[in-house]
Amino acid sequence: MHNTLVIGTQWGDEGKGKVVDLLSERTDIICRYQGGPNAGHTVVLGTKKFVFHLLPSGILHSDKMCIIGNGVVIDPQIMEKEIKMLAEGGIPVEENLKISGLAHLIMPYHKLLDQQKEMKKGSGKIGTTMKGVGPSYTDKIGRMGIRVWDLIDEHVFMEKLKANLDEKNFILEKYYGLEPLSAEKIFDEYIVYRDNMKKYVANTTKILKDSREKSLSIIFEGAQGTMLDIDHGTYPFVTSSNTTIGGVLTGLGVPATYIDNVLGVAKAYTTRVGSGYFPTELIDETGNMLRDVGAEFGSTTGRARRCGWLDLVVLKYAVWINGVNSLAITKLDVLDAFPEIKICIAYDIDGERTSEFPLDPSITGKIKPIYKTFKGWQQQTSEAREFGDLPQACREYLKFVEDVTNCRISLISTGVERNQIITSGLKEID
Ligand code: GDP
Ligand code: IMO
Ligand code: MG
Predict the structure, then answer these.
(1) Which residues pair with 29 in a beta bridge?
(2) Which candidate in 2, 21, 28, 41 is catalytic?
(3) Which end of the chain has fewer CB atoms surrounding its CB within 10 Å, N or C?
């Protein structure tokens, strides 16, 4: 298989975890390249449900190498928990996991600052996952972050920790009125993580460089989704990393020529967690039904997700900005019972029709979605294994998405299980 980027085309939670797990079978290496424990990628195997926040979703295939790249921010406590959870489930993580020594750490003060900043914002809050992701990236860009390799050398770690706490304690005490944090306590806690983590730490840039000579194939597993990108998303209601295609290159140290395929993952409808505008949001019975049938509650925070119809303006934007060359449509089964299904095909902005996503934030509040209405198929799709097994109305719905986005659908997911998938379009990206 060629190297494939699996990337979210909406506001996250598109079902990337399931898609990555499925494709891992045909791949050698699976890499996370951005984000951190704000991600929650679900893989269901029979009665077992795994939610990965930091480990790549290919980790259940113990013969595959999984890489956490330099662009990811790591909370070592969460990583340790995930590794333990797998060991308890009889899936030991050993040589198959490699963590970049250049990846930045999430420290206790990052989590505290994430919470305090949100509380201070009140009703204007972003609705972050409170995992300390934003503050950790802030320190990275501010060139004061602590990286995995810094933790390996305890003298360097203590020195950097103290320098950081000098500033952070000032903010915690003077600005937020909290107790200062103790360097010694944090040190003792993190040294234990260090001892457990050490064996996984590597020069992952070199591993990926060498993989080309060995003709190994790679999956790049995106976290979040296009509309949460720090530059190209719905700023400031975004995450703190580049969730779009550029994140792969900077987050792993691979050239652009490494990406052969870009598989955009989209739900058959749309969801969003946290604040920020969402043109097709349904604050009504239909929205509630999407949430209930789709079990739309956050994998990381448990929060109820906001739900609405599929937005092709958003999808086309994501296809363009990431160079998506095929789509994976997930959660199609969630639409099975709806008598009528809508797709947003354009926006009305002050009486003008556009199918371009408006980037000017002063315009976004004026968006009125224009819908095309489809008759629902009102039949079960979860048993379908071929495109032809799907009801006619359902096939028409999918054909319409292909035509408008000018993108083939190579995967269709119709349930949480590994086998509830139609893969007939996959051969085109092999
Ligand atoms: P990710 O963050 O993109 O990996 O997505 P999440 O794991 O946060 O959310 C997707 C949710 O939908 C998970 O609970 C999955 O088990 C579930 N899911 C994935 N694909 C399907 C599908 O085709 N049908 C249904 N009903 N659920 C799905
Ligand atoms: P996966 O990888 C959905 C959202 C948060 C919030 C905003 C900023 O599972 O698709 P952050 O904690 O990153 O500073 O929060 O981004 N968010 C996600 N929403 N799926 C995710 O990840 C998300 N990661 C962050 O809800 O609105
Ligand atoms: Mg998720």
Answers:
(1) 65, 218
(2) 41
(3) C
Max intra-chain CA distance, the chain: 66
Residue 370 contacts residue 345 (beta carbons within 8 Å): yes
pLDDT single digits (tens) 68-93:
999 999 999 999 999 999 999 899 99
- Supply 125's token pair: 């809050």
**For a pocket test of ligand 2, which of 224, 232, 271 has the largest count of ligand atoms closer than 8 A to its C-beta?**
224
The strand pair at 367-375 and 97-100 is best described as unpaired
If one residue of 14, 73, 128, 241 were mutated to test the ligand 2 pocket, choosing by the most ligand atoms within 8 A of its CB, it would be 128
